[in-house]
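Dear Dr. V.,

Thank you for agreeing to look over these. As mentioned in my earlier message, I'm a first-year student in the group and I'm still getting used to reading structure tokens, so any feedback on how I've presented them would be very welcome. I ran two proteins. I've put each sequence directly above its structure. The first is here:
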Amino acid sequence: MGLARRFAEQLARPQGVGGRLLGSAMDIANRKPTQLAVDMLAPQDGEHILDAGCGTGAGLAEVLRRADCAVTGIDPSDTMLASARRRLGPSAHLVRAGLEALSFPDGTFDAALLLNVLYFCDEDGRMTANLRRVLRPGGRLVAYVTHRDTMLDWPFAQEGLHRLFDRDRLIDALAAGGFARDRICVQETSITRSVRGLIACAER
């Protein structure tokens, strides 16, 4: 198995020491996308916010710096959840779960954060539909992905484990989960001189 394939698999589900080190490196690389996404999320005191694919908990830590929220994080990786627990302690409710199997009741959350996760979501929209279901009416989802034009230059993205997005494909992915197209907005942003990102906000 090639290095690019192993790296792609670790990004999809980090494991062990390598996964923990990768999580720390990605926290640094994703600092600006995380801040921009939480800016768009605009958490408010008293809200209940879900981070779907919470990784090391960096996104939830940023949310908690902005507002006095109840926060829940889910991730399918035990390695990432262990890192998130070390970072967040008792301030967050953390659950081992993937988007395909959310056990929360309908309308549990005021908002959801989805950072670098849509790459791994099914094309039929079942996972994004699960997210929409657990949002209250009027609740919002904010998602970040790196633009496909940037990722085409990255060898691991050619291994078939990542979906690639431009603006239209990102809107399509959220609409497949039941979000109305006229309630989806997408902003393109420059992360570095060589990296372009997309931030979407979809309202239930």
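The second protein is here, in the same arrangement:
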Amino acid sequence: MFILQWGDLGGNWGVNRSISQIHAYLYLAEAPLTAEDIAHDLGMARSNVSNSIKELLAWNLIHRVPIRSDRRDHFVAETDVWEIAARIAAGRKARELDPALTTLRACVDGADNDPAVTPVKRERLRNMLEFTEAVDRWYGQMLSLPQSKRAAILKLGSKIVSFLPGGKKKKSKSGADK
């Protein structure tokens, strides 16, 4: 069930369903598997499996492992969920966020030098660029933190606001604001 659902989720995220299913299958696998094993067990064409494996290798979500006395390629998936998330985020940043930043910077520069662009449009372009740059900075900051700190931040959720200036006041044991 997980393999099918992961495949569907991948489709929702713009990832080929087969790639997502193979990733899920390897993630759950307790031993390295060959492309033939994967094709047989998932009922997929060998060519589809080969192409999907190439994509997963490019995303660094799986890797080849040697097996003594077997010349075939065997594959295992990264199983650390934090590492999986970091690798997916890095891939998406490179494919989506970095080109968006390049385009937005060019648009802002072009708008600043074009008298036909209204001040409202210039401001909206600058706002979009500033937001996208902030997301890029946040991504870099989060990635530079140790995994334990990222986990703590994730667990804090909206409670993190209480640590910010002007955030919620903490209550003392007596119930009074500090």
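From my reading of the second output: The chain has two domains: 2-77, 81-157. The longest strand covers residues 70-77. Does that match how you would interpret it?

Kind regards,
E.
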